[in-house]
C-alpha cells in the first residue's frame, strides 16, 4: 500500500490488470510534489485523449455526445415559453489551457479535484420551444451552438480503494462545477426573420455572464 504508485488512468477505466498506455505519466504519492506531478499527468492524459486509445478501451474526449435522455427543460407553454434542450455535445474538452489537480487521501475515501481552465469550449444543442416570448407566439425547433469563454470546470471525484492484486481506486461519487466569463450564443433559426435572429443572438451574448448563472442551475 505505501509503495503504491498511483496513476490517473485508473480513475478513468475499470482496470483489470491492464498495462497503462506509455503516454500516461505516473506519480508517486509519497513524494512531496505529488499533486504537481498529478496535475501534469492529468493534463497530458486529457491531451492524449484527443484521439481514442482503442487498445485500452478509452474513447476520445474531444467531441463528447451526452446521452439522448439527458435534457434540460424550463418554462410553460401556456404561461410563457416551454424550452427543452436536448442532444448536448461538448467539443474541445481535450484542449485545456491549464489543469490543477489535487488528491486528498482520507482514511475511508479519497477526493480527487481537477480544475481545468480553457480559452473556450463549444457546445451544440437542439432546442424545442413552444409558447410565447413576451406575447409573440413561438413554436420552433432549432439547433443552438454556444461557446463558453474562459471557462473553468471543476470535477470532483470521491474515490474508494479496493484490492485486486494491487490497490486501485473506484469512483463512488462525482460532481461538476462550471464557471465562465461569458457565453456567445448562436441560435440557428429561432426566428424566421434573419435580422431579428441575428440581433437576438447578439443581445443574448451581451448578457452571457448573467445567463451563465441560470444555465448552471
Ligand atoms: C402552466 O402553468 C400553469 C400555472 O402554474 C398551470 O395551470 C398550467 O397547467 C401549466 N401548463 C402546462 C402546459 O404545463
TrEMBL record:
<dbReference type="InterPro" id="IPR038606">
    <property type="entry name" value="To_sf"/>
</dbReference>
<keyword id="KW-0732">Signal</keyword>
<dbReference type="InterPro" id="IPR010562">
    <property type="entry name" value="Haemolymph_juvenile_hormone-bd"/>
</dbReference>
<dbReference type="Pfam" id="PF06585">
    <property type="entry name" value="JHBP"/>
</dbReference>
<protein>
    <submittedName>
        <fullName>Uncharacterized protein</fullName>
    </submittedName>
</protein>
<dbReference type="GO" id="GO:0005615">
    <property type="term" value="C:extracellular space"/>
</dbReference>
<feature type="signal peptide">
    <location>
        <begin position="1"/>
        <end position="17"/>
    </location>
</feature>
